[in-house]
């Protein structure tokens, strides 16, 4: 069975049909740049463009980089603040011709995919997936059950939102070396999260997971096992597709 997933990010919006039996993309994903500013109308238009690229006519799952309850956006750290209070499901559904739309937090979607098909498959205890990109998203699981909308990227780290210090955008904006970013920024963030939650496993997702060998060996003093996401940057699309399948 194939369903459709769209992953809205701070820099790009990507989507593809998802093969739910394999937990993988059924076709090569299509990506467009996130409009700046990332207003509701602008982003919804880009989602419609991605869906139309495949001529899709069934249910659509959509991730959003913020807290989502029902299909209403509650926070919007890395997109335009005018999203707050918007019924994203209704807005996007209208723009894609009335197709059924399911909306969920982006890291939660990636986490569900990784726990089902990837690095967290079969794991009990506390597992935390962190998506490193424009910001830092988080998905927390206890014995395989999701605790939704945790948003651990906004924990305070040295007086700042953690994601402004330890995200890959911070690395790029400040032109930090892999070693400096891993040892001085990401390591301290992981230690802080571990102190609060004592997970057995960290899964590191987002686009940077493709380069895990450049920074994970530099992390020290963390008791939990740390592994890259197996689905890498497609996890959000797969998780969005899984959410859409629940409406079928």
Structure description:
This protein is α/β, with parallel strands linked by helices and 248 residues long. It folds into two domains: 2-108 and 235-245, ATPase, nucleotide binding domain (Nucleotidyltransferase, domain 5, 2-Layer Sandwich), CATH 3.30.420.40; 121-229, 2-Layer Sandwich (Nucleotidyltransferase, domain 5). 32% of the residues lie in helices and 26% in strands. Strands 1, 2, 3, 4, 5 and 8 form a six-stranded mixed β-sheet that branches. It has a five-stranded mixed β-sheet with strand order 11-10-9-14-15, with helices on one face. It has a two-stranded antiparallel sheet with strand order 6-7. Strand 6 (68-69) and strand 7 form a beta hairpin. Helix 1 crosses helix 2 and helix 3 (106-117) packs across helix 8 (235-245). The model has no long low-confidence stretch (mean pLDDT 97). This is Polyphosphate glucokinase. Belongs to the ROK (NagC/XylR) family. Its EC number is 2.7.1.63.
Give the key terms:
8 helices; EC 2.7.1.63; Polyphosphate glucokinase; alpha/beta; Nucleotidyltransferase, domain 5; ROK; transferase; globular; 32% helix
Q: How does the SSE layout of this entry go?
A:
Elements lengths: L1 E7 L3 E8 L4 E2 L4 E4 L6 H14 L6 E5 L3 E2 L2 E2 L14 H8 L5 E5 H12 L8 E7 L3 E7 L2 E3 L8 E2 L2 E2 L1 H4 L1 H6 L4 H20 L3 E5 L6 H4 L9 E4 L6 H11 L3
Parallel strand pairs: 1-5, 5-8, 9-14, 14-15
Antiparallel strand pairs: 1-2, 2-3, 2-4, 6-7, 9-10, 10-11, 12-13
Helix pairs in contact: 1-2, 3-8
